[in-house]
Each structure stands twice: as C-alpha cells, then as structure tokens.
Design brief:
Distance between the termini: 15 Å
CATH superfamily of the largest domain: Zn peptidases
Strand content: 15-25%
Cofactor: Co(2+); Zn(2+)
Largest sheet: 6 strands, mixed
InterPro entries: ArgE/DapE (IPR010182), Bact_exopeptidase_dim_dom (IPR036264), Peptidase_M20 (IPR002933), Peptidase_M20_dimer (IPR011650), Peptidase_M20A (IPR050072)
Strand order of the largest sheet: 1-2-6-3-7-15
Family: Belongs to the peptidase M20A family.
Number of domains: 2
Structural class: alpha/beta
Keywords: Cobalt, Hydrolase, Metal-binding, Zinc
Pfam family, one: Peptidase_M20
Helix content: 25-40%
Amino acid sequence: MDIRARLHEDIAARREDLIALTQDLIRIPTLNPPGANYREICDYLDRRLLRAGFHTELIRAEGAIGDSDKHPRWNIVARREGKAPGQCVHFNSHIDVVEVGHGWTTDPFGGEVKEGRIYGRGACDMKGGLAASIIAAEAFIATCPDYAGAIEISGTADEESGGFGGVAYLAEQGYFERVQHVIIPEPLNKDRICLGHRGVWWAEVETKGEIAHGSMPFLGDCAVRHMGAVVAEMEDSLFPALARKRTEMPVVPEGARQSTLNINSIHGGEPEQEEDYTGMPSACVPDRCRMVIDRRFLIEEDIDEVQAEIRAVLERVRDGRPGFDYELKELFRVLPTMTERDAPVVGAVSRAVESVMGREADYVVSPGTYDQKHIDRIGRLKNCIAYGPGVLDLAHKPDEWVGIEDMMQSAEVMALALHELLGG
C-alpha cells in the first residue's frame, strides 16, 4: 500500500475523533475581546498533544497588547522530534474567536453536527483547521514513525485583534528561528493555497468642536457635523478613487482586488450610559467626535500614499469648512505580503492537494491580514502559507460551520505535505 493510501486509511479511522476534537474546541468560548478562556483551551490542547508524544510549552505573552491579569494572553507551542535531524514544519492556529452577533439558529458554542457540518462560533475560523492539523500530525506520526526533523503545533492568542499577544510575541521571543515551513490552517477552502494578504492601515480621525447648551447650538460647534462633512468628502472623492485601484495579486473574493476602506466606528457626543441607566441624556453640543477607519491596500500601493490620501480628504474639508479642526492618529499598519509560488511549502501542499482531490490547487491572497504578517516581518520566515478547511465567506457570520469531509480531506493534504517535507 502506498503512502497516500496508508495515510488516507489512518485518517479515515480518526473521523469520529476529528469530530469530537472540533466540538470540544468550539465548546470552549474563547471570545476576543476580551480574551476569555485562553488558558482553558491551552490546557485542553496540552493534554491532547502530550498524549501524542509532543513536548509542550504554555507561554503567557506578558506585557503584550491586551495582556492583563484578568485576561492573560496564553499560547501553547508543542514540538515532537523525529528519529533523525531535519527541518521543522509548524502548524499555527489561532484559538480566539470573534463575538457571536445576532441571527443564529444553532447554539454558537454547542458544536452541533447536522448534515455533515459542525456548527459553532470558530468552527470555520479556525478551530476546524486546528483540529485537522492535529489529526494530520497524529496520522503522519503513526504511519511514518521514522520521519526526520520535527513537527510543531501552536495555538495562539489574539489573531482576531492583531495577533500581538500571540504569534507576534512568539516571533519576538525567537520561536520561529527553529522553523523552516509554516502552514496556517485558516479557512481559505480546501483546494486553495493562500500565499499572503493585502496590507492594512488603521487610523483614528478626531474632529473638534465646542460644547454648548443643546437649545442654543449656535453658541457651540458640533464635532459630529464636522465628522459628517468628512464622511461626505470620502463618499464624493475617496471611495470612487479606491474603486479604480486594482491589483495583480490573486485576492479573493473578486471585490477585494481593489483598494477598500471601512468606517469601523464613529463615536461622538455623550458616552453611552450603563444598560440600567433609565434617565434622559443631557442637552449638550458634542465637542469631540472620533472615527476609526480600516484601510486595506494593495501590494502595488505605498503606505505613505495610503496615509496621504486620508490627510488630503481632511485638508479639503478644512479648506471649505469654517472652524474645522482635526487630529489624525495611526493605530497600526501591516504591509502586504505574498510568498513566492516556488517556495518549498507551497510546492508540497500543492502536490498534496492534487493527489487528494484530483485537481490543481488554486493560488489566492486573503482580503484581510492574518498571522503570516508576524511570521514574515518579525520571524523573518518567508516560507509560510495559509491552507485549511472551511469556506472563507462563513467567517464571522451567524451559523458558522465547517464541513466534516472538508476537514478530512484537508487533514490528508497536510499529512501528505508532512511526508514530502520530512520524509519517513
């Protein structure tokens, strides 16, 4: 029996284990923010991976953005050495999930199995991918016990909020210096290899006014109206200009092959009161209004140009609006990244996809950033891709799900890639 058939047979025997593992992970509500239950899920993974012969480390990202005694940023890194020296393949998955939101018809943390799918927040993004990588590693170890090199599996914090308490922290501590290949099982579809992502620039715009009694607004200056003028200028000039910018990067979906801007939030006037407050608001003209923007840019664009476009919008508003004043503050930036198609990990996964699915893999780029940015920029490791089960469009949506058969096939692809990269 050839290696592909042996791995297929072993993974098929682990089907129920894969389902149960995915359900267990979904049932730990690792919501971020605030960063809940990180230690609980790391302890669960620790027990699982110790049984499979891995050496494990639980690492708190002390001092990182988001880390606190109330919500510590815990990560796990597990490593299993082979029979001989060789290279290291690292599977990295984030353990955090976004807020539940409205519109669910299933229990978001129930892990319900229905018609070949497992439902729950994080099922697709990306606890299904984490489970598939564990099953892949365990099947490969059982089938090829004499492999050379090492296998690593990590579960890391805070990818949904930038990854600074997770992969960025590990990269800063040198954990990727011993790694040659990284596969991140993000949900980009089982027959796609994701080479990288667009860039992102988050910024905060604050418009300024003057507080006054709400019955005499002419004695004050409304910062919210000033912000309205900013939004109007964006609608008139910036959004059309961004829609005309196109990239050669194979970004999916099609709409993300242009530059985009999302207005993430606008806050002006009095702060929101506690839910149990039953009084009325006070009558005041707002003297401050803040807007957070999320600008996604292309590999063909320069970060200085991206910033200059926003400042130009604000200056045009200033020129035409008496009393207008603003502050612009950068929150964070990530430059675009894209691994070369001839990189070793790309070739290994590509050949595995073709072997398992009988068709060539598609090469794509993610519309949003993920933890490849830190492995690339801080870890200095270019040989990194995202590959995993799940439909990208389901991420962060109600009734999120991952297909069981998709996880099975993705696990087989990962196991075959391990065989090519590590032998055995």
